Amino acid sequence: MGTVGKALDLLDLFTRQRAQVGLSEMARLSGLNKATCHRLLTEMESRGLVEQIGPAREYRLGPAVLRLAALRETAVPTRDAAMPVLQALARATGETAHLSLREGDKLVTIAFAYAPTHATKVMMEDADILPWHATSSGQAVLAFLPDTEVTALLARPLRRLTEVTETDPTRLRLRLKDVRARGCAETAGTFESDAQSVAVPLFLNGDSAVGALGVAVPVNRMTPDRQTLIRRELTVAATEIIDLWGGQVPPAVTALWQRLT
Amino acid sequence: MGTVGKALDLLDLFTRQRAQVGLSEMARLSGLNKATCHRLLTEMESRGLVEQIGPAREYRLGPAVLRLAALRETAVPTRDAAMPVLQALARATGETAHLSLREGDKLVTIAFAYAPTHATKVMMEDADILPWHATSSGQAVLAFLPDTEVTALLARPLRRLTEVTETDPTRLRLRLKDVRARGCAETAGTFESDAQSVAVPLFLNGDSAVGALGVAVPVNRMTPDRQTLIRRELTVAATEIIDLWGGQVPPAVTALWQRLT
DNA sequence: TGTTGATGGTTCATTATTTGAACCGTTGGT
DNA sequence: ACCAACGGTTCAAATAATGAACCATCAACA
Questions:
Q1: What are the boundaries of each domain within chain A?
Q2: Domain A3-66 class?
Q3: Which stretch of DSSP H or E encloses residue A149?
Q4: Considering the domain B76-259 in this protein, what is its CATH number?
Q5: What is d(CA A152, CA A150) in angstroms, rounded to the nearest whole number?
Q6: Does the beta carbon of A104 lie under 8 angstroms from any beta carbon of chain B?
Q7: A180-204: pLDDT as tens digits
Q8: Does B14 contact A67 at a Cβ distance shorter than 8 Å?
Q9: Longest dimension (CA), chain A
């Protein structure tokens, strides 16, 4: 791996739980030498990608990422375009809607919307990384990815997040086959034990999924009727978003979605 | 300059006017060898910082910047925290309000808000890079920066953007002295000939400005009364934003702002 | 149909940069 | 006064970056 890759990998060490990291810890987390780490960080700091703060001189993500994100959004209004649809979806279903995109081997939540209706709802956060095997969004994407990619993404051991998380690759693949046949993934308590969710894949051009649109519901509120409603609304919203992105729903998927009950 | 710096500099070649760039053009713009450029880009692509699209295989900013920006905002709600204040400022003044942050040697607009009042207004865009010498925001920041930094930032020749742009460093420094004495910068037609604007510096900790808050008005609508109103509203809004950021207005500046008419 | 000139991408010997153990100066706790 | 951890620096050795020349492909054009 090149130097640039190492530097960029350092950025992935920042998480919501660990928004700022000191030099030594950075070296420890990344496995790089402290001196190397320091050089990479100062180089990124000079470009504003990270910044150093406080008396402890800890590092955190810098303001440049805001500029880059704004630039990306004006060029490719992925998030901004989908936001209104996402809000409408949350309103129509009365539940939490969220949009995730694939970034290499990660599935990242880039937007979400709460419904004003209920006091209890499934909470979400931006920039959350979703596990492929334990979320409906993850499964929705996997089901519409070439087999070689699926294999690569499921190569690492599948963590058992709750009592009912499917951790057996073979059984998971059977599940994906089902998702592929229906055009829609559904999980209950596999990620967080009190949340249930439904998701559909999102496409741009071609038959390969680039992300997923999902709705999450507290388990105690889910009913068959509600589930049916959510499925319907999801397919409508997904079609709309793909259209806004200037993409196309694969005809095969459109057919599946029309047949969905 | 290290390899990482070169890679990150490539990101700055993306602008709103030029959202996607081919390999050869990238090499031309950056002055790097095509092979080098290619390696840096593919390395960044593997981390999602850029992506390649279309039959022409052009490069553009990737989805990872969205995730990083979201992460940065949850850690340091710079933009999100300021947004409501910015909107209130736009409403109160009836004009376009904008917030810019310093990123190394650049001044970047990271948020703006339009007033619903008028049909004509000064338009803005996210991720705009403002010239230090020709905008009130730029001057507001410069006026509250250590002299050594000012010298560095004004080292490059000052472009004459309109008829009345000040391009003489010595005269500009006199102007900055005035801004420093008043706590507020005002320009008319120095950036775009039909826009006039007022700006105040923003602080975090210490006496060094980190950005600026500005209001832009079409020249034909500006009156002394309006200008006074804008100054007042600006200082109030700036104080509020700095407070939301968990920073502190330097006492000397608070005093200036109270004395402003 | 062959020519030209542009594109994206690759190769590999040369070269310059990255690397990391050991170091320094500070800080905070005991 | 001591120790341990911190951020940061040094410099010879090791490694990765570099770039001229190279393909393959495409579009325009005669």
A1: 3-66, 76-259
A2: mainly alpha
A3: helix A147-153
A4: 3.30.450.40
A5: 5
A6: yes
A7: 999 999 999 999 999 999 999 999 9
A8: no
A9: 61
